[in-house]
Design goal:
Layout: H1 2-30, H2 37-59, H3 76-89, E1 94-95, E2 101-102, H4 105-119
Helix pairs in contact: 1-2
Length: about 140
């Protein structure tokens, strides 16, 4: 489900970016004859910059403040470091209690869900071990 949502988000981003570029190309063609096309070009350029800034915002959330000056755009080094950190944290396979190795996202999620359900299940007290209080 998460992969499908991410793919839809990438497709929406690409569609919107292509639309903005198509508008820019159309305005560039008429910019010589129409002087009001220049502010529209600046407006579309700002929209593309905001679109990319929003996309980069999610990749800079792991970067500590020591790595980044306020207002500074992330460098290629920081982006590669973030990617390396995320890939190091990624769980690629997990083994369940029967010894079966799961590598799919749904399999890994199922193993973790069943493990935590078993670990945090309700434990009823043993009636024989309870002592009545002696007062």
């Amino acid at each position: 489900m998460f992969q499908r949502i991410a793919a839809e988000r990438r497709r929406d981003f690409q569609t919107l970016e292509n639309f903005y570029y198509d508008c820019i190309y159309a305005l560039v063609r008429i910019a010589d004859t129409n002087p009001s096309a220049i502010p529209a070009l600046h407006h579309l350029n700002a929209k593309i910059v905001r679109l990319h800034a929003k996309r980069l915002q999610s990749s800079t959330t792991d970067i500590t403040s020591a790595d980044n000056i306020p207002g500074e755009t992330p460098t290629l080094y920081q982006l590669l470091r973030t990617h390396k950190r995320r890939s190091a944290r990624l769980i690629r396979s997990v083994r369940d209690e029967t010894g079966t190795n799961h590598t799919s996202v749904t399999g890994i999620a199922f193993v973790f869900t069943s493990f935590f359900q078993h670990k945090y299940r309700r434990i009823d007290p043993d009636k024989d071990e309870l002592q009545p209080s002696q007062t």
